Amino acid sequence: MQRVVAALRLDWPERKRLHHGLMLGGLVVVYFLAGKLGLHFAFVHASASPVWPPTGIALAAVLLLGVRVWPAIFVGAFLVNVGIAGAIVSSIGIAAGNTLEAVIGALLVERYAGGAHAFERARNFLRFVVLAGLLSTATSATIGVTMLAVTGEAAWSSFGSIWLTWWLGDAAGALIVAPLLVLWATTPTGILRERPFEALLLFFVVAATGALVFAHPALRHYPLPFLCIPPLIWAAFRFGQREVATSVAVLATIATWATVRGTGPFVMGSDNESLLVLQAFMGTIAALTLPVAALVWERKAIEQERSSLLRLEQAARAEAEVANRAKDDFIAMLSHELRNPLGAISTAAEVLRIAGSNPTFAGRAVEIIGRQSKHLSRLIDDLLDVARVASGKIVLVPEKVDLADVVERCLATLRGSGRLQQHRITVKAMPAWVNGDPVRLSQIVDNLLQNAIKYTPPDGQIDVHTFREDGAAVLRIRDNGIGIAADLLPRIFELFVQGTRSLDRSQGGLGIGLTLSHRLVQAHGGSISAASDGPSKGCTFTVSLPAIETPYAKAPTLHPAAGNGRGRRILIIEDDADSRESLRMQLASAGHDVYEAANGTEGLAAAAHVKPEVVLLDLGLPGLDGYQVAQQLRAADGCPRLIAITGYGQPQDRARSIVAGFDHHLVKPFDAAELRRLLQ
To answer: Which residues contact 620 (CB under 8 A, 6 or more apart)?
Structure first.
């Protein structure tokens, strides 16, 4: 009992050594018992048998476990032979030959035939037949018979007959036993589990065929060995190499037992001759039927791979067709969404041209132009943002932000624009602080809110909640609108994906808002999900972002008092005449003293003359560009405040304008309120 407890307390290296020792000991016992069984059929010499399973056992052991098992093979072979004649020298020589046979055969198979996987392909199995079945077995036969002749245990005149018996017994063992053991050790049992009744029927047919061909006394003189082939072909086509090897072993066992008893088609003048012919037949059967099985299953594997590739190709084609349709739908939507505001602007401009003295029409036309210009700007910004996020070029400027504040600001903007008048809004904004870019977070919230408004009918309910949960800041927006179809839900965040739209497209949009939100959330290290019970059952969008600890206190935000303030002396340097004139009128109407220049050279001259307090400077100027003008203005005494007004809004454009000396960077079309704030 103490030894058992001590064994259980062994450390890992000791357990590994113990396991290796037990494995070698087990191999010695198996080899010894198989050898004693084989020597029962030793008729030409006590050490040479035409039935020698230990060769297959040793070869399989080296293929599966490696060369390190050679000591067990040597000891097993020595014990088998030393018990026959008792000669130590010849027993050592025979054991060395048996060991070399297994090691050389395994090394050749590893090098040229795929090792333990040699039986999976017909080409490799044929190489196994030549290398392990025919060549390496000659090593053991040559060394063994030579040792018997040298020690006087066999006559030199009997060398040929003993060598042939020895070699053929080893070859049959390599071709019948080794594949059986290796295949059962390496092949999954899936087919047997799938077809258990057919497998039992196959075993019964093989055994019955063996008994009929080899053991039936009434058929002993009929040449019926060909009847063994159909069951083996059945096994090859329906099951595989392992079942073929098993069937061959069953037939060989029945045939050997029957032949020794004097029945069957291979009974010759002596038992040794009978077994030699039988082993030659069984080895040939194994060498022919196992490659057939390998070819069959190679073919099936190719067909399965081809079918799999065909399915992948069909799926890829279907996906490409869906993407192509989505692209076509998007182009159609983009055309519609751009033409509508452009049409409204064009019509309003015509109204301004013909309105004359009707101030009501003129005022309404101006409102329409402003509103539609903002709509166009939002469409373009969304497209550019999707492109930036997709290419990884978007730059986040993180800071500590309360998600509840972001939601309140977005809701206030929507209320001010009248977008929430037709819906019932429930807000439960609990503090949920994150480290994020407030501009991009507002974009996420605004997209989700506008999505809920767009797809919720008038008088519908929209619930907006922010809270902390399991270390995450969560935004949840739920509505009772039109919902999301089950087939659309998994693709709802893909680019250009939208639900069914009517021809008038009254809901508008390009189908990129959710995609943009999804990618912005991912850029913040968070996740976004959509849930819906189906059409007309509403939907829920949930955003989860990594939460941070709540800051101690926020500094109060000071807002300047309302009022026009004093006018400023402003210089506009802009090459586009319409843009320059409209901006001049806007600033002059606000009480500023405004000057103009159409290019960089004129702008520098005007700046030197009028000494402006603020310069609104376009970057894409002819001749001297805006960056060069800004650098020269910065180098002069009394540099004014420089504000870039440009259509270039990439992060690198903003960075370059700062390097050039600009104080601010506005992207066209810019918000008039933002410009007023910068001028105050």
So the answer is: 575, 626, 646, 647, 648
21-186 maps to CATH 2.30.30: no
Residue ranges of domains in the chain = 21-186, 188-335, 398-546, 569-679
In whole angstroms, give the CA distance from residue 438 to residue 87: 93
Compute, in degrees rounded to 10, the torsion defined by CA atoms 121, 126, 128, 129: 140
SS3 string of 138-179?
Answer: HHHHHHHHHHHHHCCCCCHHHHHHHHHHHHHHHHHHHHHHHH
Two structure tokens written together for 309:
């590739």
Tally of CB atoms within 10 A around 668? 13
DSSP 8-state symbol, 550: P
Q: How far apart are CA 458 and CA 133, in angstroms?
A: 85
- For 398-546, give the CATH class: alpha beta
Q: What is the DSSP letter of 67?
A: G
Minimum mean pLDDT among 54-58, 135-139, 160-164, 420-424: which range? Answer: 420-424
Cα–Cα distance, 141 to 168 (Å, whole number):
9
Higher-pLDDT residue of 441 and 504 is 441
- The CA distance from 630 to 616, in Å, is 10
CATH assignment, 569-679: 3.40.50.2300
Count the alpha carbons within 13 Å of 610 in the hemisphere toward its beta carbon: 20
What are residue 508's phi and psi, to 5 degrees? Answer: 65, -175
* pLDDT of residue 166 exceeding 90: yes
Closest CA to 94 of 166, 37, 160: 166
Dump pLDDT digits (tens) for 44-83: 988 899 999 999 999 999 999 999 999 999 999 999 988 7
